[in-house]
Amino acid sequence: MTNALSVSGLSVAAGPRIIVEDIDLTLERGQAVGVVGESGSGKSMILKAIMALLPAGVKATAGQITLDGKVLPHNGGRKERGHRLGLVLQDPATALDPLMRVGDQIAEVRRHVIGRDRVTARQEALDLLERVQIQAGRYRHHPHELSGGQRQRVVIARALAAEPEFLLCDEPTTALDVTVQAEILALLEDLRTTRHVGLLFVSHDLAVVARVSSRLVVMRHGRIVERGTTEQVLTHPEHAYTRELLDSVVELSVPEARA
Ligand SMILES: Nc1ncnc2c1ncn2[C@@H]1O[C@H](COP(=O)(O)OP(=O)(O)OP(=O)(O)O)[C@@H](O)[C@H]1O
């Protein structure tokens, strides 16, 4: 069977209000799928539903989430999700424990999730820091001593410490400046190609999503309005909303082109 994370017919609601409706998505290992759409279109809720991390009062009301064909329960389900799914969020400052050394935050995952002893976990945390291009000397630093880009690298290293097969990224570069953004995208791309990690990449920024994804899903008001290969969607958008998104990217690049 294909190693895949699938969402079918997923709907999410807050009381009577439907937030996300009838979502179908499949992500295979080594593949990157981008989910794009304006703020409030329901992108984050899909990731939260997959991770069983929906906020209080918000529930999955229909549909299934499966991993290699096995249904994951909408609530709880830590065991079934295991450490196969990792999550990287927009703000690395809040994702990390401010009081703990960054290296220890990674080592802790190696110990508790993978079951390594203290010494091995520490060494492997150093290896993971190196993998995301953070110097070993930073192991003992606290999050506030690092730049935003370095913190996001630490967040990614910590997610990788659990050896996930699929990494769900919610606006992972939005809080970063453009150069650092490019570095983080390159790192994610490297994980996909060398480690075969499947990436579900959510952003309101079509240009960013298109850079890392081979397939795109466009969302509006909680529904998927368009999907296809990145090339298809960029060159032959079918939905008026997708064309609007594309126009805004083109408009942004016009001053540069004229300069
Ligand atoms: N805790 C909550 N309770 C009820 N509704 C919520 C809650 N959190 C978010 N929503 C609503 O769910 C909808 C989808 O939000 P979601 O965060 O998934 O959008 P998004 O596309 O990820 O946007 P953004 O890019 O701003 O994060 C929004 O209309 C939002 O108001």
Automatic annotation (TrEMBL):
Q: Entry's Pfam families?
A: ABC_tran
Q: Where is the ABC transporter domain?
A: 5-246
Asked if the record carries the keyword Nucleotide-binding, the reply is: yes
Q: How does it sit in the membrane?
A: Peripheral membrane protein
Entry's InterPro entries?
AAA+_ATPase, ABC_Ni/Peptide_Import, ABC_transporter-like_ATP-bd, ABC_transporter-like_CS, P-loop_NTPase
User: Which PROSITE patterns does the UniProt entry name for this protein?
Assistant: ABC_TRANSPORTER_1, ABC_TRANSPORTER_2
Localisation per UniProt entry:
Cell membrane
Does the keyword section mention Nucleotide-binding? yes
Any idea which UniProt keywords this protein has?
A: ATP-binding, Cell membrane, Membrane, Nucleotide-binding, Transport
* Highest taxon of source: Bacteria
Signal peptide location: none
Q: Which GO terms describe its molecular function?
A: ATP binding
The Swiss-Prot or TrEMBL record describes its family as follows:
Belongs to the ABC transporter superfamily.
Protein name, per record? ABC transporter ATP-binding protein
Give the organism, scientific name: Kineosporia corallincola
Lineage summary = Bacteria, Bacillati, Actinomycetota, Actinomycetes, Kineosporiales
